[in-house]
Amino acid sequence: MGVGREHILRSVIEEFPSYPVTVLIAPTGFGKTSLTTLMVEYGVRSLHLLPLRALVSDVMTKLGDKACYQAGVKIKSVVKDPYMLCYHMVATYDSTLLEALVAPVADIGKHRSHWDIASLALYGRTLLMDEVHLLAKADESEGGVDGSSRGLLNLISAFTPFMVKYYGSKVIYATASIPIEYVSLLLKVSRDFAHVQCRVIVVGSNVILDYYDRLTELNCHLVRIPIDQIEDEDVRGIRAAYKSRVLTTITDRRVEDTVASLIHEGYERILIVANTVRRAVDIYKSLKERSVADGHKMILIHGRLGSRAREERFEDFLNLYNARRPLILVSTQVVEAGLDKSFDAVISDIAPIESLIQRFGRILRHMEDVEDVERRDINPMLVVSLSEDSINAAKQVYGDDQINHTMEGIKDLVKGLKWERVRNGKINVYKVDWRYGEAPTTYSILTSSRVHVDYRDPKTYFNNLEGLLRNLPIFKKDLDEWLNTLRLYGFMGALRPFKLIPLVACEDEDCREHDIVDVSISFLESRFKELLCFDRDCKVQAVTRVCSNERGCWVVVRDAKFSDFRKVLKDKSGVDLYSFIKNLRDDVRREISRKMREGVAERVNVIFLGFRVMRGYDREYGIV
User: Residue 544, by phi and psi: left (phi above 0), alpha (psi -120 to 50) or beta?
Assistant: First the structure.
């Protein structure tokens, strides 16, 4: 008996009264993120959480004026709500935790911050948590910020049952490739801490269904839906095209040589995913220097570009994509999940198997993509790069064990498969399934992997959240004191926004035109002399924007005390960064008060933009 995709998605929402916590595991391209659109239709007060801020733009282009967003990006023609009070919200995990535990973004730095507004923003929300397990992987800052990614996953694991228990929230975990250990952790803490019923819906082949069968041990309601029982014509059409057309190649060739072969074969839209910023920039430069991609527009996007440059490039990408222009997008993990775009070919550096499954999900996502490749008579190509540079960069981010396990699994998988050559005879290809779990499938590698999780970490976080709730003031008058309380409870180690330091790349002497790059504290600690020092004594400059009703806004650049700056770098919790910013604002106000009439300083708003980059930033390549 068949079942429709929309029926599955609607049942997730309609059965909330019985199952406040639901895990939906379904293939890439299945439409899991369209749950947000359905929640808008049902009038469910929703919050869609994404692991990377670059993906917020893509989701908001579909929702338009039906929702608001909060993330460190600017999106044209939609509403940004720093208080997160809109009925339907899209945000990053980082922004949400900042709102919940510290203060609304708009209140940080003010004399008072309002916990009651943060509570209103989150109370009664239905949380759609997209690919939450990727929080334990590398992000756009390469490998997490100061190693905090795994701590962030543990905090989220405790935060969601806390929301269910005390805020009346419902939770949907949506994923295509989550290791079973992470699912078990998420469900176990929900059962033990929130005391609610949970449900797991799994869509896939027997390999995938059998893998997640072990979740029945947690007394969660398990719904198994074989992929061949999905009756939607577009799902069937995409699956048939995937099985007949999608090819995989594993190669140690240089990426540039692979790109040249693909372009020769008529591939128009190519995605290249590297594991580090340096690797992405090197590939991009080499493609340019060798004129490999003549006729294709090349775009480079990574996390150490200026925020304005990154937003402009993402907009350029969307315009080129929608105009069906030939393009090559070179990126880091910022496109690993949530980007609802299809390419003719995806080239990825070797990575953990769940990350490869996500990256290789950027093909044949819609029926029009199937019609397009059939019209042009091409086979969507998935390329695993096993070059020496690829392997070294991957191990730098993910460690030896995960990369070795994935490489060995892929090699074992294709060892017994019949290979063939594409037309020009330069690429050996295989028929491998990265999406549905139908043999031969890379999901066999996922099912053989083991991930270590410690149940005690989320339990500690949950107990501390309860302790924090009992001590919350309505007005957090002294945010320094509050941040130290959070540090005492162990939360600051997982709050990544406080572990990112903004750097200002000035485009003129007065810094009126500038762009801002966020880097991790550990990254800056190793590179600050190269990036920030403008003389032998290493005087660091801080950049602020000052606004008043009388004079408008202007930029103030002033020397920072090097001892204070070093203290910021030594404090991995980020508390001293906030203290530095607060003191800097007070100093700027006093300086303005001396130059202007009395009373003006109180009416002046001072915003810390970041530390000035003296060298090492290139507008095209960013900070490499």
Answer: beta
Which residues are within 8 A (CB) of 433 and not within 5 positions of it... i.e. 6 or more apart? 242, 243, 246, 439, 440, 441, 442, 443
Half-sphere exposure of 564 (CA within 13 A, CB side): 16
Sorting pLDDT into bands at 50, 70 and 90, what band is 578? Answer: confident
d(CA 274, CA 350): 9
Residue appearing with tokens 């930029």: 555
Question: Which H or E element spans position 327?
Answer: strand 327-331
Classify the C-alpha dihedral 230-236-240-245 as positive or negative: negative
C-alpha span between 37 and 260 (Å, rounded)? 40
Q: Which range scores top for mean pLDDT: 52-66, 73-87, 385-399, 412-426?
A: 385-399
The amino acid sitting at 297 is K
More confident residue, 290 or 248: 248
SS3 state of residue 69: strand
Section 510-523 average pLDDT: 91
- CA 270 vs. chain centroid, Å, equals 21
Tell which phi-psi region holds residue 548, choosing left (phi > 0), alpha (psi between -120 and 50) or beta: beta
What is the pLDDT averaged over residues 508-518?
A: 92
Angle, nearest 10°, between helix axes 562-570 and 521-532?
150
The pair of three-digit structure tokens given for residue 41, joined into one six-digit string: 């239709």
Q: Which residues contact 566 (CB under 8 A, 6 or more apart)?
A: none
- Burial of residue 89 (number of CB atoms within 10 Å: 0-12, 13-18, 19+): buried
Task: List % helix, strand, coil for the chain (3-state, nearest 5).
Answer: 45, 20, 30
Separation of alpha carbons 607 and 595, rounded Å: 19
Nearest 5°: the CA angle 72, 75, 81 is: 65
Q: Are the C-beta atoms of 499 and 149 separated by less than 8 Å?
A: no
Residue 524: HSE in the Cβ half-sphere, 13 Å Cα cutoff: 28
- CA quadruple 49, 51, 56, 62: dihedral positive or negative? negative
